[in-house]
Amino acid sequence: MKAMLMAAGRGERMRPLTDCTAKPLLKANGTRLIEFHLHKLAGSGITEIVINTSWQAQQVRDCLGDGSHYGVCINYSHEPQALETAGGVANALPLLGDAPFLLISADIWCDIDFQTVLSPRDDELARLVMVDNPQHHAGGDFGLDSNGTITSAAKPKYTYSGIGMYKPKLFKLAANKSMPLREVLTPAIEQRQISGQHHTGKWLDIGTPERLHELHTYLLCKTD
Asked: pTM for the whole thing?
């Protein structure tokens, strides 16, 4: 299995921290955000990694190299202009191949075991990891029905964690264009082709300096 880490974003809400530093390279308790994922992936036996880059792309390459330091093999998919999530994945498909792959946002932190993220069934295009709604996203994203199918109608709604298992063909609509993930998910959800699983452990969206500090404090307390 391969995994893709989304690392191309500018990180506007993180400014001024991201004015000179790529957002995935920001540190919490001495570890870069993207390194948490690399260590976890290696520990799960997932060693073929694709990372997309745009803002501060060379900085990311110089820092992470070929991945050997982390026990993984990294290939880079560069975007001269950031293509958003779906467009970025579509751009990277030649590196990802034809099999389902794990997609992870580099700017989240989660204690999930990546081996527990299940592959989509034959009639599905993706399986999303959903989490309880954080305070800053209280309305959530999608619901899960009794069969584990993602739906816009079911309640309660949960928040998409930024972690999911995807089939490459979901991203055909995003080829050669900038497109957010929701634009490819929505029609597939309407066709009941997206399933989900609910993770009840620790999850943080590191979208602001305050949440970066929250993660730092959490990790510091864990090591005491």
From this structure: 0.95
